[in-house]
Amino acid sequence: MKLGVFLSEYRTGADVLDRLTADKLGIIFVGNGVYNAAVKENGKASSVLEKKASFYVLAEDLESRGFTAANVDSRVKLVTYGDVVDLIFNDYEKTIWI
Amino acid sequence: MGKLTIGCFSSLVGSLSLDFSVKLSEAAIQKGHTVDLWVSGNATMVSKKGQKAFKDYSFLAKKIQELVAAGNLKVTACEACAEARGYHKEDTMEGVKRFSMDWYLASSFTADRLLHIGGD
Amino acid sequence: MATKKLGFVIRTMPYKIEGSRLGMTHAISSQTVEIYLEDGDMVEPVVCFIGDGVLNCLKNQQAMKHYAITSLEQHIKNSLLLDLNVLICKEDIDKLGIKEDALIMDAEDIGGETNAKVVPYSEIQKAMESVDHLLFC
């Protein structure tokens, strides 16, 4: 399956992601999930980014929390709401929110 | 163009998940899609009329009414969830419908994509 | 005539937040959805409990006694009475030290004939792949 995961949590949700498998997996960081894209806890990037997936972060939610593109891990692409719509309709057959 | 059904169960105030739902709805409509927004649980309160804007609280009523009035967005609230919160039919925002939970499943039947945002 | 499959994946605990309760009540509402659909069209839910969500499946919940609200136990029994497919993750009950005999596996006391199934996560993954839409609760 082609699965888009909206990750809205920080520190939690990894239990779901660890086990999920998909032929094509996209992880879209939204809400507090954006901390996975920008925070380096104890100098280390979020373990979520080790997952074999394409990563996106919602720019509005990132900026709302005091970050800029410069803070974002190089594996993560900044997206707008319009881009998210295109991801939902064009890239993934199913979407989940965790 | 497709149909997106969003089910949101999160609080009007605090979670910002309803804000996400409304912004995503608007973006989808701008791209020519149609959107059904089902609000259930604590999210039901977003469809109650008479909300006032305060800068410490999410205020989505105006945007929802604009999108509903322009077409391509249907907002439907869970009737039981509303009644349980003391929000009665006459309190419903103009343009919003109230139905039982099976409406959401029926919307999912014809949806090309579904995003379910769970509750708090 | 068509059938759309919905996968309700319940990962939250039974009380304090409403997620699992609303997941169950929406899944159960599949029994009346036909009023909105064309003749022969159906919505078929599968309910999967994973992670902390397996705690919804414990027997002897006393929510009605103490809070005057329907327990998640009763909702699970109602879903079995209506022949919904209910899957409980084996790895997660093992992780939480829960034995199968502590789980709601049937609704015989209210006339149900369908049983819940404790299955490995791989079966839940297959169920998620088989549905049209996923609803994580």
Key structural traits:
heterotrimer; A: 98 residues; alpha/beta; Hypothetical Protein Ychn, Chain: A; 4 helices; globular; C: 137 residues; 5 strands; 30% helix
Q: What can be said about this structure in brief?
A:
With 120 residues, chain B is of the alpha/beta class.
Helix content of chain B: 25-40%
CATH superfamily of chain C: DsrEFH-like
Radius of gyration of CA atoms of chain C, rounded to a whole number: 15 Å
Distance between the termini of chain B: 32 Å
Q: Specify the structural class of chain C.
A: alpha/beta
Low-confidence stretches of chain B: none
Q: Approximately how much beta-strand content do the residues of chain C carry?
A: 15-25%
CATH architecture of chain B: 3-Layer(aba) Sandwich
Task: Trace the largest sheet of chain B across and list its strands.
Answer: 4-3-2-1-5
Major sheet of chain C: 5 strands, parallel
Distance between the termini of chain C: 29 Å
Major protein interface: B-C, 21 and 28 residues
- Which H/E pattern describes the elements of chain C? EHEHHEHEHE
Count of helical segments of chain C? 5
Shape of chain C: globular
Describe how the helices and strands are arranged:
The complex is a heterotrimer of chains A (98), B (120) and C (137).
Chain A (H helix, E strand, L loop, with lengths): L1 E6 L6 H6 L4 E6 L5 H4 L15 E5 H6 L11 E4 L1 H11 L2 E4 L1
Parallel strand pairs in A: 1-2, 1-5, 2-3, 3-4
Chain B lengths: L2 E6 L8 H14 L3 E6 L21 H10 L2 E6 H6 L12 E3 L2 H8 L3 E5 L3
Parallel strand pairs in B: 1-2, 1-5, 2-3, 3-4
Chain C lengths: L2 E8 L8 H10 L13 E8 L13 H5 L4 H10 L3 E5 H6 L21 E3 L1 H10 L2 E4 L1
Parallel strand pairs in C: 1-2, 1-5, 2-3, 3-4
Helix pairs in contact in C: 1-3
